[in-house]
Amino acid sequence: MTRTMSVTALTRITWRAPALTAVLCLASLTVAAQGTDGTRVSALSTLIVWIPFILKGFLLNLIMSILAMAIATVAGVILGFMQISPSVVLRVPAKLFTQLFRNSPWLVILFAIMLLLPFQVTLPGGDKILIPDWVKATIGFALPVMANVAEILRGAVLSIPSGQWESAESLAFTRHQTLRYIILPQCIRRMLPPWMNWYALLMLMTPMAAILGVNEALGNTQAAMEAAGSHPEFLIPFYLFLMTIFFVFIYPISIYTRRLERRFAAGS
Amino acid sequence: MLDLFAPFFQRLYETTGINFTPFYDPYDWGRLLEGMWVSVQLILAVIAVSMVIGVVGAGAQTSKLRIVRFLVAAYIEIFRNTPPIVQLLFFYFGLGAITPQVDMGGWYEPVIGSFGWAVIALGIFGGSYNVEIFRAGVDAVPETTKEAADALGFSDFKIFAYITLPLAFRFSLPALTNNVISLAKTSSLAYVIAVPEITYTLSNIWSDSVNVPEMMILLFLYYIVLVAIIAWVMGWLERKLALPGYGQ
């Protein structure tokens, strides 16, 4: 009896956690502010002055993550379809492409895109368009997610019982019709939780763009600290604040993802 | 070893302009080897730290104390839902600034260098995933097995250490493989705190010799080979530890 008692469900924290973190963050700032010397007080007040600037950077993180996710979803679905195609010419390159981007670190892909992509393109008419760094970073972030979306699609299609394919065939559906009307509608439900997981991960990776000089949240935080005189005591509050804004945004997504996972697992 | 292929790559550069400096320049060759070695050390250390955290965390999650379970849950959620790069910077610059320094006879050096902080930060980050992975493995251990151990007079700790953990480890291997591979890839983030691992080294080489595409190819190859090796080792481990009666 005692044995079964000790097996408790994994302890989870609910919606209160982001609020709690924000409070803890503020509390630690206040503690830091109560330091005896005058410089400590300025750490908190400096942060408050720079918060709008950091949030403006965070907006770019949001835009990059949403755009990258859109690109990754479209490209990933196409790549996923190529992977399950009966034609070898489509399947093999798609597999190689997927593996290349799945097995390379985000930073390396980001470097490759940033350094190898031209910084401007010439349109057929002769006009030159400059590609801003953040657009290139967005493409860099989209590539690894694209490969994983492709894998999610492939996995979802494989998880559909083969009886579904066979009954569709016996009803004289073509392959295209079977995919369009029978397989895909069932896949979307299974794909949604991992898709959201990848969005959360993508959002968490966007600060890497700061390494390559994009003025997003991390870049702006570092710029703010420098502008404020780069005192070492700024480091902890500023980075803590940055972690908090990401946490407050990502955590609800994580919770909702888990809820969906549970619901779909129970439904199937 | 360099002498074997140096003439080939030297000629390749002279005739085609394809410049693989590490394969003919002894200095860059040394840097490449050093970068690969540091990267392997970093990955192994990070994996070790994250495994220990995973096991301890999974054990703590079964604690009867509510506060302990809450703290582990908070740890998991905080580290999984904040950007790893900011965590790394926070540890290195934020905490690194307040850690004690040792007098090296004239100059001061922090007790924990950038490599140490990278291991700590990435280990803690990876550990937050491992806790859940081991926890799922622990859940998969049949209740009856634990009851049998209980009936034989094993203490709670002994049941965890000798019965639950060895079984849970086997159940969690597939998920663990994924996380280990993802950690190996995340190790390239140590670039931001200037740990001289492969990404950092090769970026130094391409800034010196302006041969970005060639070094990119090397970097991609390095990680593809690395991931293949890890996947192979983990697959071997899985087969070696396979339990009769489970799976196929």
UniProtKB/TrEMBL annotation, chain A:
Signal peptide positions on this chain: 1-33
Keyword presence, Transport: yes
InterPro entries, per the entry: AA_ABC_transptr_permease_3TM (IPR010065), ArtM/GltK/GlnP/TcyL/YhdX-like (IPR043429), MetI-like (IPR000515), MetI-like_sf (IPR035906)
SUPFAM superfamilies assigned: MetI-like
Residue stretches spanning the membrane: 42-59, 66-84, 104-123, 196-214, 234-253
UniProt entry tagged with the keyword Membrane: yes
ABC transmembrane type-1 domain boundaries: 58-257
Protein's membrane topology: Multi-pass membrane protein
Superkingdom of source: Bacteria
Name of the protein: Polar amino acid transport system permease protein
Organism of derivation: Rhodobium gokarnense
UniProtKB/TrEMBL annotation, chain B:
UniProt entry tagged with the keyword Membrane: yes
Residue intervals of the ABC transmembrane type-1 domain: 36-234
Primary subcellular site in the record, as a coarse category: membrane
Location of the protein in the cell: Cell inner membrane; Cell membrane
Pfam families: BPD_transp_1 (PF00528)
Alphabetized InterPro entries for the sequence: AA_ABC_transptr_permease_3TM (IPR010065), ArtM/GltK/GlnP/TcyL/YhdX-like (IPR043429), MetI-like (IPR000515), MetI-like_sf (IPR035906)
Protein name in UniProt: Polar amino acid transport system permease protein
Membrane topology: Multi-pass membrane protein
Family classification: Belongs to the binding-protein-dependent transport system permease family. HisMQ subfamily.
Keywords: Amino-acid transport, Cell membrane, Membrane, Transmembrane, Transmembrane helix, Transport
Keyword Mitochondrion set for record: no
Taxon lineage: Bacteria, Pseudomonadati, Pseudomonadota, Alphaproteobacteria, Hyphomicrobiales
Transmembrane regions: 36-58, 70-95, 107-125, 217-237
